[in-house]
Amino acid sequence: MDFNSREYYSSHSKLSFIGYHGQQKLKDAKVLVIGAGGLGCPCLLNLTTSGIGTIGIADFDIVSISNLHRQTLFTINDSGRLKTGAAIERLKSHNPETLFVNHSIIVGQDNVLDLIDPYDIVVDCTDNFLARYLINDACVYMDKPLVYGAIHQAEGHLTVFNYENSGTLRCLFPEPEHGAIQSCADIGAYNVTTALIGTMMANETLKIALENPNVLSGTLLTLDSLDGTFTKINYKKNNESLTESIKRFSENPALFVLSNEAFTSKLKNTSYQLIDVRTETEHDTFNLGGTNIPFDDLISGKVLDFDPKATAIFYCQQGFRSYEAVKFLRKLGFNKTFCLRGSMSNWINII
Predict the structure, then answer these.
(1) Using 50, 70 and 90 to split pLDDT, how confident is the model at 350?
(2) Cβ neighbours of 296 (radius 10 Å)
(3) Which residue pairs from 91-94 have beta carbons closer than 8 angstroms and sit at least 24 positions apart in sequence?
(4) Euclidean distance between CA atoms 237 and 171, whole angstroms
(5) Domain range for 107
(6) For residue 313, is it within any domain?
(7) Looking at residue 132, what is its pLDDT?
(8) Which residues pair with 149 in a beta bridge?
(9) Strand pairing partners for 102?
């Protein structure tokens, strides 16, 4: 069947806040959604069916059975597939006019700026607090509006950061103690809450694209799915927080982030200690060797089991924890600490 865009968007054309010109704004918009999970799935579906012209999807993970109750773009038959590919396949069946860009990558310090650069709006649908602060800092540095949503079991949070001089993630939530925030995989997730917040994230994204005056910036909306209540809390921009975000990318991470080439040329023939900062369970399941010092233990000061004058190289599953560990240690004077760039899969045949 031929796609008739006029008929497809006929309901939108009747709305005073969209109409023909608004629909054209949506078509011209370029949106990056980071995370194709419980929040990402409903958000992506609503952005697609609303007519966003270009949608980038960034996620490195594969579909698993335990995710399906809340990741509604996928079916049991998608188990084991990359989320980005499976999501794009499903979304194209809803709107063949939308251009989808597949970013099947781990978003990290070394690639986040290039990732968000082509897009007008960034939507954070991740479930990792280290990733959230990285994405926030990158959006501040690149001056991109950031749509933020999060859930904690049956409770949901929604706001828009860095929009028309509004506050940022660091202004609202100073970076928490490491390990203080658990993921949905650890504590569970109510699929109704993820569906509601993901859909509301799409709504904020559409309002930004439409230049609607009611964007939820400077206000955090909290939803309790069980008692049906909404609460709003206002917050303000904090210049110190902005400085902290910009500083992250003004500093030179090449001083301590090792690429394959840097490792081979600089440290391959140097004596060093290899340290895995993942959990004991992760380390026992598979590792690249070396000593296991869990990230939370390292940051809390429980374990500093290596010579501060010796060269130490840190790694983890995706590169977030090892990067934060080295930043932390270098502030304490451990100037010969380095972290491996990217995921463990990049290093299996090198270490």
Answers:
(1) confident
(2) 16
(3) 91/44, 91/45, 91/48, 91/55, 94/45, 94/48, 94/49
(4) 6
(5) 5-245
(6) yes
(7) 94
(8) 158
(9) 57
Token representation of residue 105: 């990558």
Q: What is the pLDDT of residues 132-150, one digit of tens each?
A: 999 999 999 899 999 999 9
User: What is the C-alpha to C-alpha distance for residues 302 and 190, in angstroms, rounded to an integer?
Assistant: 34
Contact predicate 42/199, CB 8 Å: yes
> Quick one: tokens of 43?
């958000």
- Torsion, CA 150, CA 152, CA 153, CA 156, rounded to 10: -50
351 within domain boundaries = no
pLDDT computed for residue 183 by the predictor:
54
**Which residues does the annotation mark as catalytic?**
184, 316
Rounded to whole angstroms, the Cα distance separating 37 from 49 reads: 18
pLDDT confidence of 175, banded at 50, 70, 90?
confident
Angle at 302 between CA 299 and CA 308, to 5 degrees: 75
CB–CB of 193/151 below 8 Å? yes
CATH number (domain holding residue 315): 3.40.250.10
DSSP, collapsed to helix, strand or coil, labels residue 166 as coil
Amino acid in position 308: P
Range list of H helices, the chain: 5-8, 10-13, 19-28, 40-50, 83-92, 112-116, 129-142, 169-172, 184-187, 191-210, 239-250, 260-262, 280-285, 295-300, 320-331
pLDDT for 161: 98
Stated pTM of the model = 0.77
Domain tally, the chain: 2
Choosing from 210, 245, 280, the residue where a domain stops is: 245
Distance, CA of 82 to CA of 87 (rounded, Å): 9
**Do residue 205 and residue 76 come from a single domain?**
yes
CA angle, 168 then 236 then 47, to 5°: 45
- Residue 233's φ and ψ, nearest 5 degrees, are -125, 125
CA distance 109 to 252: 11
Cα 115 from chain centroid (whole Å): 11
